Amino acid sequence: MVLSASTSYIAVPAVLRYAIPEANPSIYFGLSIGLTFPLNIMLGIPAYIWIAQQFN
Q1: How far apart are the first and last CA of the chain?
Q2: 6, 44 contact by CB (below 8 A)
Q3: Closest CA to 28 of 11, 39, 13, 38
Q4: Three-state SS annotation for 24-52
Q5: Of 2, 3, 28, 39, which sits 20 to 30 A from 45 (CA to CA)?
Q6: Is the pLDDT of residue 50 over 90?
Q7: d(CA 19, CA 33)
């Protein structure tokens, strides 16, 4: 679950680079790591653990 959630760190900057060439890379690189990563650590991993426990 963590691996699939973290694919946005790699995929989003590459897609935005070609989809919106005039976009500022420092903004979308910063947001993909600076915003998504802490949210994944604080909220995502506990949610993934809870979901996994529901299937045991």
Answers
A1: 15
A2: no
A3: 13
A4: CHHHHHHHHHHCHHHHHHHHHHHHHHHHH
A5: 28
A6: yes
A7: 19
Return the amino acid letter for 51. I
| C-alpha distances in Å from residue 48, one per residue of 13, 25, 42, 55 | 24, 30, 11, 11
Tell whether pTM > 0.70: no
Angle made by CA atoms 20, 25, 23, in degrees to the nearest 5:
30
Closest CA to 5 of 18, 51, 20: 51
Summarised one tens digit per residue, pLDDT across range 12-45 is 777 878 888 888 888 877 777 787 778 888 888 8
Residue type, 53: Q
